[in-house]
Amino acid sequence: MEEQRDTFPRLLAHHAAVRPGHPATREKDLGIWQTWTWSQVADEVRALACGLAAEGFRRGMHLAIIGDNRPRLYWSMVAAQALGGIPVPMYQDAPAADFVFVLNDAEIAYAVVEDQEQVDKMLEAMPQVPTLKHVCYDDPRGMRNYEGVTSFAHLQEKGREFDRANPGWYEAEVAKGRPTDVSVMLYTSGTTGKPKGVCLTHDAFIAAARGGCSFDRLTANDSILSYLPMAWVGDHLFSIAQWLEAGFTINCPESGDTVMTDLREIGPTYYFAPPRVFENLLTQVMIRMEDAGAIKRWLFRRFMDVARRCGAEILDGKPVGGGDRLLYALGNLLVYGPLRNVLGMSRIRVAYTAGAAIGPDLFRFYRSIGINLKQLYGQTETCAYVCLQPDGDVKLDSVGLPAPGVEIRIGEGGEVLVRGRMLLKEYYKRPDATAESIDADGYFHTGDAGFLDDAGHLKIIDRAKDVGKLGTGAMFAPNYIENKLKFFPHIKEAVAFGHGRDMVCAFVNIDAGSVGNWAERRGLAYSGYTDLAQKSEVYQLIRECVEKVNAELATEGDLAASQVHRFLILHKELDPDDDELTRTRKVRRGFVAEKYAVLIDALYGGKAVQHIETLVRFEDGRTNMVAADLKIDDAKTFPAAHGKAA
């Protein structure tokens, strides 16, 4: 019955009852895929929940969960929820110092972590986190001489003893749960300040999961690869909420390094990746094709021309001429099919991207080779559920239509406002922030600027706070420019400046793999990233990319004034460990502008070279100074709606 499926623990019990032998979770360990059925997962969660209870975990407490995507960590979330507790997943690549704020803010007493590395971080943080008393680890390797921490196996053994001694207790705890209870606390990325704990209820996430599963017809027969950070709202939507709603199978890779291999082995039917992953995959394809033989390169170019011409239309079921259909079928046999197989996307029925804007050319590439890639739009505060793109109505420049059950309106200054069951309950211990984000009519203020087109599709321009004006009065949307630059495989990151200025300038991070391969094929020697980034040949390569973007901007009306006049290639990659990016790899624009103010002054001051010294921090806490004389280059700009250089 519906009322028995209104919390995640009750959804788990439902699947264990109706599909006990169906695979719920898989994990690759030592090269072999291990499988747990729904009934087995229910037993594992029960033992873990009872083990936590035996250790003193009670309703309303918070459980930190830290590590790569591991079955037991996902089960830990449901175990905490079964007891009326709240899981707080955290980014596994953060150093111990970064954990301290969240551990204290969430008043964490219990933590379930993956392995020795994460245990070491917890022990390092513990003196600064007085509430943290209980640490449980999954992977026992290297843990023999540790004291004061508990193995996952021991916790479950203790739980089974507790369960035998207290028959019916677990069921009673699950029955106490309410849809309005907070089911998870996810921390924002902290782009503009300290992260905030976003409290989301069972009802909110189940509404989002139910709407998404219905929209894309997801069933228990689907399969996904769970490899993105568990602390990120997108992974929680797919790997917890939709998993427990639809009853499909989640697959955990052996490690971050084996994701592509594991993707090919699993062949998921449902896939999600942020734009950066799709960009990296395309970069790898292009690198491989440049190294391929002449015949393969010719076939690739020839049939990609066909795909660009009609592939997306064929995918959408639109009319295409017989000749092109025949050529596309041949291309599917010779190029597109093998390419999808290499990418691990042969069986994909639905693929999504979100988290940042994806370049229309990149979007079209995947759809043109037969991958049903679509965009979704949402925030941590909305369970990553605001807009979805329906099959057959995918627009490259929109994020789709309002998802089922979601209302959208455009507020003052073009800000996107949303309302629905999927909204956060509150920011933890931040009533001020909660009141600021949800207005009197119940609309959440997303902070994004956008508009609804005539067909009802939402188009996002930029973060509302980032949209500014040039000194000339023309609109300046930095994220829009940056995404155009990042479409090129040679550019990994870009930061554009121009608000209040008479022209736009930019920082660029090169993609070390793509540019390194390009340099090696030309016999260009280099000693490392900093040396490669400052080569005159590399500047010429990047200048060509910048000027192509400028030519496109020249045809885009109000944005023609946003062409990049000057740029430099940074001497180091922007890094979360240096606070330049969030853990979800979004640029902390204000921090970067302040940290590299001397470079911005040099760009606008007409300098040709600027010396810079930067302290970099490694994940293990070590630091090092990187110094360089950075070149500053000029790029050609184009008159509005014309193709000749100004």
Summarize the structure.
The protein has 646 residues and is of the alpha/beta class. The chain is 39% helix and 21% strand. The longest helix is centred in the middle third of the chain and has 22 residues, at 294-315.
Would you write up a description of this structure?
By secondary structure, the chain is α/β, with parallel strands linked by helices. It folds into three domains: 2-272, ANL, N-terminal domain (Rossmann fold, 3-Layer(aba) Sandwich), CATH 3.40.50.12780; 378-464, Luciferase, domain 3 (Roll), CATH 2.30.38.10; 468-634, 2-Layer Sandwich (GMP Synthetase, Chain A, domain 3), CATH 3.30.300. The protein has 21 helices and 28 strands. The strands form seven sheets. Strands 4-3-5-6-7 form a five-stranded parallel sheet, with helices on both faces.
Which residues form runs of ≥5 with pLDDT under 50? Answer: none
How much β-strand is present in the residues?
A: 15-25%
- Give the helix/strand class: alpha/beta
Using the coordinates above, name the CATH class of the largest domain.
Answer: Alpha Beta
Helix content: 25-40%
Mean pLDDT: 92
Radius of gyration: 25 Å
How many E-type strands?
28
Oligomeric nature of the chains? single chain
